[in-house]
Amino acid sequence: MAVGSSPLEDLVTVPSALDHFYRGKRVLITGHTGFKGGWLSLWLKSLGAEVWGYGLPAPTEPALYSLVRAHCFQGEQEGDVTHLDALQSALENSRPHVLFHLGAQPLVRKSYAEPLQTFQANAIGTATVLEAVRLNRCATQVVVVTTDKCYENVGKAEGYRETDPLGGHDVYSSSKAAAELAVQSWRRCFFQTDPALGGVATARGGNVMGGGDYAQDRLVPDAIRSLMAGEPIPVRNPAATRPWQHVLDCLSGYLWLGAQLARSEKTSPIHGAFNFGPNPEENKPVQEVIEGILKLWPGQWNNLSVPGAPHEASKLNLSISKASSLLGWKPVWPFQTTLEKTVHWYHARHQRMDSDQAMLSFTLEQIASFEASARQQGLAWASEEAV
């Protein structure tokens, strides 16, 4: 790397369909200070987008946001997603072509401690974002990120489809189901009928992992913190099965959905809900995740499952057939690669103690590696053809 140069300037990648679409586009991200928001901001910047952020201060310390902040944003505005006036101001300042709504309270266990705040952030916050777009008559394409936990989980083995009933045992899950219903109503009542507005779709991602996640009560960050401290990893529910995927797999779906919204009629089924998860064989129990981490970063784990703990579903799988058939999307990195990329990131940051600039380059290199893998697999979003 040249002295004084930016890692974003030095990174050379093959232009893709995402590059062709997002280069020069103005993109507003709510929740840009969070884990997914940090990765999405950096990827969009590397695609040549003009990235704007709206959200609360970073929810953790350390945070991925602290690495990417100086390199990514054309402008930022601090604010809550339930504050309509502030959101309208952010829209006026950024005039986005695409809006990714990630601002949320993202933790199941925290929803037991702060149920009302969780519901306000996730359900009312989503409605407020959509209302701000409507009132500003903004022609942006809107991708609302919810979760795989928005489904009424009845424990079935096969993957949940976008047409399955919404629900949720805990407040977090029900708040995300309510967010989905809010999007459906705003779409039908306003977005589809008003030519001044763009399109709107929702993205239901699986359980993501990747470097830079420091949230409490989340499996991989908890594991890394324990390993750094030389302590056994606490595991609450080792038999629970989840659709694990790298954060970049999830984000590739969000980015491609935003691009496809812009080129489709509002009557298209693309203006709807999409699952973005791993292939069925990549759904793994928590214990296998932990044991995989320990092969890369030696340590121990303890089974802390106890009766009476807050409810967590034992099984959750997603069907990604809709995303595959309508978007030509599929996951790129298998489970083992996802684990390796994740653990290597944390190892570089906290064992090698790489500098901020070195970690920014490391993160960009993982994005470039992911894009190269997708290109080798012939995925539409990674092809060299324009959207």
Fraction in helix:
40-55%
Order of adjacent strands in the largest pleated sheet = 3-2-1-4-5-6-11
What is the structural class? alpha/beta
Order of secondary-structure elements: HHEHEHEHEHHEHEEHEEEHEEHEHHH
CATH architecture: 3-Layer(aba) Sandwich
Number of domains: 1
Beta-strand content bin: 5-15%
Q: What does the largest sheet look like?
A: 7 strands, parallel
Shape: globular
Distance between termini? 32 Å
From the alpha carbons, calculate the radius of gyration and give it in angstroms.
20 Å
Task: Give a structural overview.
- With 387 residues, the chain is of the alpha/beta class.
- The chain has 14 helices and 13 strands.
- The protein has helices at 7-10, 17-22, 35-46, 65-72, 84-94, 108-113, 115-136, 171-191, 219-229, 247-262, 286-296, 321-327, 335-350, 356-376; strands at 26-30, 50-55, 73-78, 98-101, 141-145, 200-205, 207-209, 233-235, 241-242, 244-246, 273-276, 284-285, 301-303.
- The radius of gyration is 20 Å and the shape is globular.
- It starts with 6 loop residues before the first helix and ends in an 11-residue tail after the last helix.
- The model is unreliable at 1-5 (pLDDT under 50).
